[in-house]
Amino acid sequence: MSISVLGAGAFGTAMAVTLSQNGPVTLWARDAEHVQAMRESGENARRLPGVKLPENVTVSAEIADALQAETLLLAMPMQKMAGFLDTHSDTLAGKTLVSCSKGIDLSTGQGPTALIRAKVPGARAAVLTGPSFAGDIARGLPTALTLACADHSEELQAELSTPTLRLYRTTDTTGAELGGALKNVYAIAAGTVIGAGLGDSARAALMTRGFAEMLRIATELGARPETLSGLSGFGDLVLTCTSAQSRNFRLGHAIGAGEAFDPSITVEGAATAQALNKLAHARGLEIPVAAMVMALTEQSISVDEAMQALLARPLKEE
Ligand SMILES: NC(=O)C1=CN([C@@H]2O[C@H](COP(=O)(O)OP(=O)(O)OC[C@H]3O[C@@H](n4cnc5c(N)ncnc54)[C@H](O)[C@@H]3O)[C@@H](O)[C@H]2O)C=CC1
Ligand SMILES: O=C(CO)COP(=O)(O)O
């Protein structure tokens, strides 16, 4: 059984590298020049420098090459997924589409599985998510992720597990994808606190209250609470709120420190904060930390104002 990875960013490349231990993998990039550069150098210098592409990984700019496989990993930024599915919907029907993207589509409020079902009705949708930096996976460091698929596939779990990548399965696709999307918002909050010098205690408080918000909104949207407590929710929240490897954390850190941040870096949490606030508002749910993250990323509030607003909220029961 062969696998293809669609999107040759850091994460798609890392997944291609680890999965190539099980068999041949096609790594598809939309940019032919990027493919040429990867073939010549034997690595993805743009997105994952220093990691050699194994022989089992074929890089291609032809989508037809990738479509030879039945299992396709979607590894592109969330806000690009709808356009990608629209363009290729006919050819993707009947395939197993495993989303690796962590976000909520801003224009529809849908997560990856709902988007896949809407755009490619004949496809089987799954989600691969959890605490994992691309560099760690590619270097073969031990990693555990959640694989969510409505039809409970042990076969898919085995297909996507490697000697260093251990997958746990669940049928709760909503919980898994919301955990992965929402933690990015709180990683921005954590980064902001550290960048502004507000201390580790404040970060722990925001992580905990952020997790409460994650549970509140995700369960309202149909997620199982235990999924949020697992790798895809709590696990990834811990990783991204405590590591400067996280781009979401780094964006927050720059906001807190009053520094510039390179806008070409993929940071899913800013758009997710907007989508999340829309969803919460429509349901009458309070998510004060996520509201502050949205205001900070939109530059409509200062860090000091955000912190004061959170501290001045009415005292309540935990
Ligand atoms: N980098 C990481 O450690 C992890 C990333 N992820 C998730 O994976 C997703 C992708 O992130 P990265 O690979 O890190 O980003 P990246 O910034 O390294 O790469 C994004 C890639 O997507 C490609 N792309 C953009 N629009 C596209 C389109 N319309 N069609 C096909 N390809 C397109 C770009 O050319 C680029 O190669 C995000 O949702 C991220 O949250 C998940 C786990 C870990
Ligand atoms: O999702 C990730 C780790 O699990 C990667 O986080 P960033 O997108 O913040 O770098």
TrEMBL record:
Keywords: Cytoplasm, Lipid biosynthesis, Lipid metabolism, NAD, NADP, Nucleotide-binding, Oxidoreductase, Phospholipid biosynthesis, Phospholipid metabolism
Domain Glycerol-3-phosphate dehydrogenase NAD-dependent N-terminal: 3-153
Short name of one Pfam family: NAD_Gly3P_dh_N
UniProt binding sites for NADPH: 11, 30, 102, 134, 247, 268
SUPFAM superfamilies for this protein: 6-phosphogluconate dehydrogenase C-terminal domain-like, NAD(P)-binding Rossmann-fold domains
UniProt-listed InterPro entries: 6-PGluconate_DH-like_C_sf (IPR008927), 6PGD_dom2 (IPR013328), G3P_DH_NAD-dep (IPR006168), G3P_DH_NAD-dep_C (IPR006109), G3P_DH_NAD-dep_N (IPR011128), NAD(P)-bd_dom_sf (IPR036291)
Record-annotated Glycerol-3-phosphate dehydrogenase NAD-dependent C-terminal domain positions: 172-308
Binding residues annotated for sn-glycerol 3-phosphate, in chain numbering: 102, 130, 132, 183, 236, 246-248
Active-site residue list: 183
Principal subcellular localisation of the protein: cytoplasm
EC number(s) reported in the record: 1.1.1.94
Catalytic activity field: sn-glycerol 3-phosphate + NADP(+) = dihydroxyacetone phosphate + NADPH + H(+); sn-glycerol 3-phosphate + NAD(+) = dihydroxyacetone phosphate + NADH + H(+)
Biochemical pathway: Membrane lipid metabolism; glycerophospholipid metabolism
Localization per Swiss-Prot or TrEMBL: Cytoplasm
Enzymatic class: oxidoreductase
PANTHER family cross-referenced by the UniProt entry: GLYCEROL-3-PHOSPHATE DEHYDROGENASE, GLYCEROL-3-PHOSPHATE DEHYDROGENASE [NAD(+)] 2, CHLOROPLASTIC
HAMAP family xref list: NAD_Glyc3P_dehydrog
Family: Belongs to the NAD-dependent glycerol-3-phosphate dehydrogenase family.
Protein name (Swiss-Prot/TrEMBL): Glycerol-3-phosphate dehydrogenase [NAD(P)+]
Organism whose genome encodes this protein: Thioclava electrotropha
The organism's taxonomic lineage, starting at the top: Bacteria, Pseudomonadati, Pseudomonadota, Alphaproteobacteria, Rhodobacterales
